[in-house]
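Standup notes
- HV: blocked on the assembly model, inputs below
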Amino acid sequence: MDLRFTEEEVAFRKEVRDFIRQNLPARTRERLRLGYSPTKQDIVDWQRILNKKGWATYKWPKAYGGTDWSPTQRMIFQEENQINHAPEVNGFNITMIGPVIIQFGTPEQKAHILPRAANLEDWWCQGFSEPGSGSDLASLKTAAKRVGDDYIVNGQKIWTSTAHHADWCFALVRTDPNARKPQEGISFLLIDMKTPGITVRPIISIDNSHHLNEVFFDDVKVPVANRVYEENKGWDVAKFLLGNERTGIARLGKSMERINYAQELARDVRQNGKPLIEDAGFRQRVAKLQVQAKALELTQLRVVAKAAGNSDGKPDPFSSVLKIKGTELLQDTAELVMDIAGPLAMPDWAKELDLLNRESGDNEPLIGPEWAGYAAPPYLMLRAASIYGGTNEIQKNILNKAILRL
Amino acid sequence: MDFELTEDQRLLNDSVSRLLADRYAFDARRGYIKSAQGWSQEMWEKYAELGLLGLPFPEEYGGFGGGAVDIMMVMEAFGRSLVVEPFLATVVLGGSAIKYAGNEAQKGEILPQIVDGSLKLGWAHGEQQARYDLTDVLTTATKDGSGWVLEGAKSVVLHGDCADMLVVSARTGGDRMDKEGLTLFLVPANTPGVARRGYAMRDGTRAAEISLSTVKLGPEAVLGTVGDAYGIIERVTQAGIAAFAAETVGACEAAHTMTLDYLRTRVQFGRPIGTNQVLQHKAADMLIEVEQARSMAMLAAMMVDEEDAAERTRNISMAKVGVGQSGRFVTQNSVQLHGGIGMTEEYAVGHYFRRVMVFEHSWGDSAYHLGLLADQVG
């Protein structure tokens, strides 16, 4: 047993870090450092820089333009992006639709979709959840009726992140309403968001921003050629997609970066007339989070090492541990940053502090320290981290079913 | 010990609850927030009619002669309905400052105008660099003939954008963190040199940054004793904590009730999600925390008028920690148990969550007060 990274891994980490520091646009870096969500343009620009280097599709097989990195290297790459304030690559493109097309797509689908997904020529979104189908995804009702060479899609999706940016949507639809089991009548369709009959309605979330949407389908015509895999076998595709590459789910680098950032901030903020960083209670809180992060780092490495040793492609149920602990840590570190800002995090200064608007010539003076104005939104938005991607309660059910068997 | 309300308190509670049930549905509230000033003048007048704006003031000034328990009841009801009018700022904070520090002339002039709803106050004490330290005041007041000149800036002044009169703390002596040398001033908001920038808080209520540049005041503007305001600042803050704690309990109670309704009605896998024991236990944990918070809000209310400053300060800190930690737990879990819908602006649960978040970050968060209490251990 040796818990240290190998020399090659250490060198790889340095290579990735140097590349990010030399190539990440300064504005993007600053926005993410302050806690602001990356803009669409931030993500597009960075993914294209990575794609040129051959790194955007690092999770794909080499034959499809990916890398031959080990699971540990992939983890290091993701962590370095997060620690150095780079946006994460568009997960819908890279982690979801890309691997699905590689596994299940026709040669035509592969040739058309993969390069455009890699270079973010097309922005993908995920049409899975519906108002009545959250944790119980297989109960979904959006219907696709076969008419000649098309499906006619009617129904509604909800919680569709970035649908307002998206060019394409991969969606689960019901093609056989009379199937024996709910999972058996579902198909996986690729839907052009410009098709007539699609309406995207924003859902404003509690951080007062627009990430989420409802998407309505009203007689939307989708060519049968845009179906992935067999009709009524879409659930197999969905299971593959949801289980694919679960190790990145903890987003540990992001939490590590926030712990570092919090210490930086706490030097400049005062409590009882002294820098907050000198406060015993604060120091213990940071130390506890560091312990949590260290434990998660090693657990994640163990899961990764196990994945490297078995290639059956089945998701490791233990990845639920990473999801639960990773999202709790993300929430706790965002809360830490907000608590440092304290009362200055409470005003909704979003409009005044909007870097994009300021660039367009708003000369009004700032009304508070910029970093404090960004301190609450990540805390608010990350309450969703224990809800999306399978709630943490559902993750515990998975652990019970697969490991505990109680 | 007596936990019962008096007949008068019960009547008051009923009429406040009835008014809010009629006029403060979630959609109505949304309308009030969207209006230009961000709250409802009409509701403000209703509160005046009911006597709420005079609740804590002596009858000789037109008040109701009530105490902290009356305020607690009203604030709990306000918390349940997420009331956004400037009650805390005007009646509790500004009103307490006048009540504790005002001379006869000041009380006689100001309190009746609070009672009838014609005067709104702002408590302009906090500053950007101060965070939670009550003595960290950089705003200065220098003698100018018989009067004073104020210079400085105040931060996150609750409802400071609509206040007609500001109660401003300033240094007339001492150094940055000294308790000595602080003085309170009554500053009409339209005094030359006062500039305000109003904004919405994360919970939809209003606040403002206020700058004071060469603000000239007469000698009558001094509230209380020159150089000796720290004790008053502490009491006003503590009255604010007690009232906001009660509001937080109301918000937690309502969020918990909404969550129970959701657990009963949301069906997944063919049955209500509330049939899952893990969610039943979570809801039970939330109930426990709501009641623990209620106990601590009662403690805070009972302590507002305690004359022993050390005793009062210690218990108010305990209440701040208790209500803050319970409030985080209850409202974070209210969002979690709702799932996606709890994350949306159009649903009330996320608003309760943010109201409680603002409480936690007002006048010392749980960690801050725990630190004060920890210093006294042993």
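- HV (later): unblocked. Confidence is low (pLDDT under 50) at residues 355-365 of chain A. Chain A has three domains: 7-89, 124-232, 245-404.
- Next: hand off to the docking folks.
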